[in-house]
Task: inverse folding
């Protein structure tokens, strides 16, 4: 099993292809197998780096309270190992981690590509978006309660159907993915106890001048678009993209379209 010791934690990590490094940062609940439909389409162009974030699947899970700061530091080490600067693509919590690192260490990046980061604290101070944040709190609380009570499968089901839609657990999620979600549920619960998990310093982010692609899906829940609008306003070199008919996981549902958008963005940034 390919593992690296990163900040004292055993991290599962794999590389594919050759060329400029492109590091893929997965979201909560899942692992490096979030990307099976897009890695084959990307390897002709890039050296793809995938890994399991700490606490997920084949990477080590510590018994102590974790922090998004640790994930950010891990990502920095992985980029340096791959050969900075790198293209970095993050989905969901992986997008939040990537954005935070971009604010702290912009020199590590060639480009930044993020899809629907759950930086929902950005919604709380704005009277126009605070109702969305309050609604989200009401939706997340039953998930947290299930996980706290040890009902990992029910919590995973609730979360999936909140993000993807009713019936998704039974009709969309393969059994192998269900097992992964249930296994990684304790790490998601740990993330909900991190007071910084849903925050970002927009002033610091505004100093990131590299090209950034911020995307969402037209079929996603309404919480993500206003977050992206606030991020786009802060980033001086941001491009917004909405994938028609897609939701929170366009790399699963629309892989060819997603890869085409990524490569077009990177080509445009390089030229």
Result:
């Amino acid at each position: 099993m390919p593992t690296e010791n990163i900040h004292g934690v055993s991290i599962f990590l794999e590389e594919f292809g050759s060329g400029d490094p492109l590091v893929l940062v997965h979201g909560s609940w899942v692992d490096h197998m979030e990307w099976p439909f897009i890695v084959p389409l990307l390897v002709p162009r890039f050296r793809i780096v995938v890994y399991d974030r700490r606490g997920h699947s084949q990477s080590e899970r510590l018994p102590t309270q974790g922090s998004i700061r640790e994930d950010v530091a891990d990502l920095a080490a992985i980029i340096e190992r791959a050969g900075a600067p790198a293209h970095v693509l993050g989905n969901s919590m992986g997008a939040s981690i990537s954005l935070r690192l971009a604010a702290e260490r912009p020199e590590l990046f060639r480009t930044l590509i993020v899809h629907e980061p759950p930086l929902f604290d950005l919604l709380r101070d704005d009277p126009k978006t605070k109702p969305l944040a309050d609604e989200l709190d009401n939706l997340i609380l039953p998930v947290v309660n299930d996980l706290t009570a040890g009902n990992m499968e029910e919590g995973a089901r609730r979360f999936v159907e909140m993000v993807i839609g009713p019936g998704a657990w039974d009709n969309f999620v393969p059994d192998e993915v269900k097992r992964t979600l249930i296994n990684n549920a304790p790490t998601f619960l740990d993330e909900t106890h991190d007071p910084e998990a849903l925050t970002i310093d927009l002033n610091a982010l505004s100093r990131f001048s590299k090209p950034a692609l911020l995307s969402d899906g037209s079929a996603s829940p309404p919480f993500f678009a206003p977050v992206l609008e606030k991020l786009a306003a802060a980033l001086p070199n941001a491009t917004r993209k909405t994938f028609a008919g897609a939701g929170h996981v366009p790399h699963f549902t629309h892989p060819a379209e997603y890869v085409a958008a990524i490569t077009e963005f990177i080509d445009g940034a390089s030229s």
